[in-house]
Design goal:
Helices cover 77% and strands 0% of the residues. With 119 residues, it is mainly α. The two termini are 13 Å apart.
Length: 119
């Protein structure tokens, strides 16, 4: 269980950080996609910064819950936009990642419980 949780945490952190970076550097695909739904470049950079900060916070046990909550919030916004756009394949992946973030939040919320990674 420890290894599975560590792998899950690594994948979710990687997804959050890489998603954030692509938005911060204003990757053309993101600018066009989110721009269709009213995101300015400044909004997109702020959205990406939230993902980057949340992903980074997930690395530390003390800030893992808040970090996962921030990332889950941004993923829910992305999911809503993806669904409006009709992109079902990426919507499913985003929904699964968001559900897994809720698992991380649940595990991290129990202050006296030991995390599966031994923490």
């Amino acid at each position: 269980m420890k290894i599975a949780y560590a792998i899950l945490l690594f994948i979710l952190t990687f997804l959050a950080v890489s998603s954030g970076v692509t938005k911060i550097v204003l990757m053309q695909q993101d600018v066009e996609f989110f721009g269709r739904y009213g995101f300015s470049n400044t909004m997109l950079i702020a959205f990406g910064a939230a993902q980057l900060i949340g992903g980074t916070m997930m690395l530390l046990k003390k800030t893992r819950f808040v970090g996962a909550a921030i990332v889950a919030s941004t993923f829910l916004v992305s999911l809503a936009i993806l669904l409006m756009d009709g992109n079902m394949a990426i919507s499913i992946v985003t929904a699964i990642a968001t559900l897994m973030l809720f698992v991380v939040m649940k595990v991290s919320w129990q202050p006296h419980a030991k995390e599966p990674n031994g923490g």
